[in-house]
Amino acid sequence: MAILQIIGLVLFKFYGWVVVVAVLAYLWRQNRRKVKWLATTENILLLIEVPKENEKKELSAEQMFASLHGILRPKSDLAKDGAIQEHISFEIVSRLNSIQFYVWTPRHLKDFVESQIYAQYPTVQIKEGPEDYSAVDIAGRTVYGTELGLTKDTVMPIKTFASFEVDPLAGITGVLAKLEQQGEEVWIQILARPMGDAWQDQGKAYIEEIKGGKAEWGGGLIGALTHIQPTSSKTSPAPSWPHQAPKPPRKKRLAPANKPLSKR
């Protein structure tokens, strides 16, 4: 009761409500700006044709992804422009008896993305604006969809290798190449967005907790937060006013008939 009295005193006697209204107005304005930015951002789909004689190793892919981290923008710039951190989608599709590689990106990042791909894979051909494989009518067809999540803390590596004895994509492409039924397709979409260095502090805190003999997944607030499995979205859902900004832009990739299946 005393706490409520103090809050009421601050809000009404000392005009604290003015601060609350100002903060809510600012958040509302920023949210509107982000929604407008999403609506005006144009995206493009790129088809990546890889020659059969490609001999590039896994290190090339690692360096390409590391360089694409350069699209990271400071939070101050995002707030100033009313924007959201862009992300890129790397996609593998098996259809029409072939396996195709795509990259989905905001158009204003196209030149940068292409340059980083060519830097590591100079023999590939990049075609702009191919037919969107997902723009199909799936009415009457059976569709299965799923998302992969983490079983452990985000501070734990998914898997590490000192070296690869086989092509790490062989297990995926091997399955994609064995589709037998007429009209059967498989779409794999991996959405990647750069992060700042704050996640390193989370990892360091986790290590200190382990050294201190605490629970394996970490105790306290940090442990509880890191134990939550992340999810990703390929669409830009309506923002939750005024606190939550809309998620990164991503054009709708599934036909309307599949909406009940999608979690987005």
Describe this structure as you would to a colleague.
The protein has eight helices and five strands. The chain is an alpha+beta fold. It folds into two domains: 2-196 and 236-261, no CATH class; 198-232, no CATH class.
CA(first)-CA(last) distance:
42 Å
Strand order of the largest sheet: 4-1-3-2-5
Helix and strand run: HHEHHEEHEHEHH
Main beta sheet strand tally, sense and closure: 5 strands, antiparallel
pLDDT average, as an integer?
78
Radius of gyration (CA) equals: 23 Å
The number of helices is: 8
In a nutshell, what does this entry contain?
It contains eight helices and five strands. With 264 residues, the chain is an alpha+beta fold.
Key phrases:
264 residues, alpha+beta, disordered C terminus, extended, single chain, 5-stranded antiparallel sheet
